[in-house]
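#struct-pred

JT: dropping the chains for the assembly here, can someone run the whole complex?
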Amino acid sequence: MAVESKRKGVVGENVPKVDGISLACGRPKFTMDMDFPGALIGRILYSPHAHAEIVSIDASEAERVPGVACVLHFGNVPRIPFTTAGQGWPEPSPYDTVLFDRKVRYVGDRVAAVAAETEEAAEEALRLIKVEYKALPAVFTTDAALAPGAPVIHDEPDAEGIYEAQRNIAAAVDVPIGDLEEGFSESDAIVEATCELPFSQHCTLEPHCVIAYFDEDGRLVIRSSTQVPFHVRRIVSRLLGLPMERIRVVKPRIGGGFGSKQEVLLEPVAAALALRTGRAVRMFLTREEVLVSTRTIQPAWVRVKLGAKRDGTLHAVELEATLNAGAYGAHSGTTLYNVGSKSLPLYNKARHVRFHGKAVYTNLPVSGAYRGYGANQGFLALEVGMDMLAEKLGMDPLELRLKNHIQPGETSPIFERLGEGREGKPQIVRSCALEECLKVGAERIGWYEKRRNRRREGTWAYGVGLACAMQGSGITGVDMGAATILMNEDGSFRLLVGATDLGTGSDTVLAQIAAEVLGVPVERISVYSSDTDFTPFDKGAYASSTTYVSGNAVLKAAQEVKGQILEVASEILGDQVGELALQEGKVVSGRSGRAVELWEVGHRAAYVANQRQIGATASFLCPESPPPFAAFFCEVAVDTETGVVRVERFVVAADCGVAIHPKLAEGQLEGAVVQGIGQALLEELRFSERGSCVNRTFFDYRIPTAADVPEIETILVPTEEPTGPFGAKSVAEVGIDGPVPAISNAIHHAVGVRLTQAPFTPERVLKALRER
Amino acid sequence: MTDANLKIYFELNGEEQYVEIEPGESLLSLLRSLGMKSVKEGCGTGECGACTVLLDGRAVRSCITFAAKVRGRKVTTVEGLGTVDNPHPLQEAFVKAGAVQCGYCTPGMILTSYALLSRNPNPTAKEVRSYLVGNLCRCTGYKKIVEAVLVAAEWKREGKWR
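RK: done, full complex below.
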């Protein structure tokens, strides 16, 4: 029972990702990798209309297809308004959705679901469901939806929580601080910009999928590719009328999330099909279904107006946002608030601030949670605006940022006035290395040199641009995560966390936090996560919360377990607990120098004397949301003949506190930056005149490939966040907030035109060049 | 299973297979039914590369390859490259470099990289990037994947591959 006592896996080290080698070896770890012989195939019938009433639905012929077990539609499923958003309780998104409705609100909306023995039988049944639609007038832009006399998209009487259904407004916000008019009248320089971010998609490589079945005790098990297993359990329980103790939700490995799998889309359908048939049901969406019918980013129109004093001090800031919520309001209000709450505190010198906006229903796909979650929409406008302001003031854009950004020990009234879909909480920024991020990033890109000497080669013009951003770490006062640590009798440990590793590496990061406290290598800790039967509650993976919130829970649990270990060791050694130290796999007495190995502690507690389970469960409620900060620099080349923009180099310097696992932290930034580059140059879901998505494959909807990606330099600038576990803050989202404005600003430096409508396609760049 | 089903013989990860396939069945579907769950479906239309396998050493997309096409040929999936206890250097390199995030694209990436390195044991970063153009990854931004392939190539040149 010898235990390796050399401490390896600890905070700040690039230990092997705990699931890395099994993933690289292709072990069957994902939702669909488990075979359920005899499972039914679940498929969904989608609306071909952007807005229509279902006059009648006749599934009798479909039900007669051999092998078809069940067809669900509004006629045979209880009507319970809910939201698919997959948020905590009380849910901030409006209850404007039901499982199957009498009305469809976008092309791709859910009409019916089928469970059948084979794909072919399911397909055949979908073809044979007779639906009579009465088409209604549809609106696709927020302007059209807000116009007087526009069709009302949510006219159902049982919806709850919609801001103003009659005017198609899902959510609205207006927060004035100081006196904006006075602020602008006192300003020496004023600029105004309007930026747009279109519909785009997360594009996780693994499509949405789920298996629902009944176990040997008749309990419903939902094996799902989800970011929020506990919210899935709560929502399915309510929709199906099954008590929570009869539902188990398991998240195996998941092939990417980025917000798209926070939405509880397939689980209630698969569960309802399983409940109706008593059989296991598998659902696996095609890429086309993912692109057309799941969820998108919140497309935004954002206007910024900045007023500054002659010396560059910001004095007045107005930010106005209109989000296209699409057909349902999931995440619209909370994302809307975040456009202001996550961006405006960055420049806290302005005394007069107003943030206002709305999220508007249209008959387009549903926009939901997407990495960045409003911050990227806000920073697009704010950072383009800052670039314009610098130009107007004749200042270096870098100097303007340095002059205005928030500093450690400072606050912003925004923290208190704006939360997620409601008021926020006051907060002081305790750690911030944005200044260093800006300085080191500028040095790495060659900022001053390249700003002075613009390069031109043939038709290619080169330029450099920058942007800054911040995010949060969890939702203050809302997000709770818990962890259980149990010691085995050989001195190894089990770490059970509700936290949901989406591929981010959070299982590894959480194991490192436990290992650091318990003085063992990461290999001595087995991590089991995201199973509502076996792991304690966790809000799930969203809002950049796992390292900070769940990590703090692990820290607390590990400290309690450490205390118990010292007690048992004191029984063995006869020393007082206060004289003992836990290090490198053993407990050492500071008095006698004698040591007891961890296995002896575990063994004694299990078998020898005063037997008990060494273990603890601890939870952590997000007390504040310390922002990570990042500075983004890029060099672009613009072909003035074709309008093609090439990102030549990208530098991201980020302060995420202490990086528990630097390589994983870098990976978060690099992935987010490339996703942002996709948004800047490539990605846009396009729609026909009838509101039907036209780019439904990866061939038409391009995301960055390895060949599209520039050289990226990632720099972690450490700070120590006093409230974070071992000084850590979040890192998952901040990296997507900067690329779009940084690229826009670099294009401006290269060719003197402002691109404000993403993506910056050759057509748009050429048009801007011609209109110059 | 109907009369139209076809029996084929092929080699999968060094083992002989004699299996019945359905008309029009994809290689992806056949391999997953044989337990090769590393072969992932990401798009079903040959655009993402998650289903990449080696067919006689060449990287192919199994979702748009007919199962019938592998008759008498050799198919390699990532399961055939190495195991958790005895991983292939490429698999180790991916983990070491931090090239594995969610892991869904990883088997396809590794096999495409394997095909590249068997052709070109000393690629530049740019060559790696262009060779991997058919394998999409949404998590990593590709940087650490390219680093992993370059490290594995170095190990190969040093004779550390088996």
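JT: nice. DSSP finds five helices and five strands in chain B. Strands of chain B lie at 6-12, 15-21, 52-55, 58-61, 74-76.
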